[in-house]
Amino acid sequence: MPPTRPDDDWDPHAEAADAADAGEDLDTDPEGPQEIDLVRGDDDQSETVACTHCGADVYEDADRCPHCGEWITAGGGSTWPLWVAGVTVLLMLYLAY
Q: Phi, psi (5° rounding) for residue 48?
């Protein structure tokens, strides 16, 4: 059976009010924060860390800095593989001639 489409005069706010009157919990804003998101008082003293690129405070669980857009990496990362690759390419070019 195909899904039914709401009538043109369907009002989600009226549906939420009817559900509230019936004692039902109807989530009208699925994108909003949940109760667990609003709990304060973690054991952590600092929930933010400094971005390694721009120094702005970002949440420690963030993947990217909201200020500069750079990826947040634990420990700042290492560039030695790029260095090794560069030396290897130069050495191979030298040996080829």
A: -120, 155
Q: Let me know if residue 94 belongs to a domain.
A: yes
- What is the span of the domain harbouring residue 82? 40-97
* Stated pTM of the model: 0.32
Task: State the Cα–Cα distance between residues 81 and 85, nearest whole angstrom.
Answer: 6
How buried is residue 58: exposed, middle or buried, by Cβ count under 10 Å (0-12/13-18/19+)?
buried
Q: How many CA atoms lie within 13 A of 30 on its CB side?
A: 0
Determine contact, residues 54/66, Cβ cutoff 8 Å. Answer: no
Output the six-digit token pair for 63. 């993947």
pLDDT classification of 62: cutoffs 50, 70, 90: confident
Cα–Cα distance, 81 to 97 (Å, whole number): 25
With respect to residue 33, please indicate whether it lies within any of the assigned structural domains.
no
Residue 20 lies in a domain: no
Residue 73 in contact with residue 52, Cβ under 8 Å? yes
Within-domain flag for 81? yes
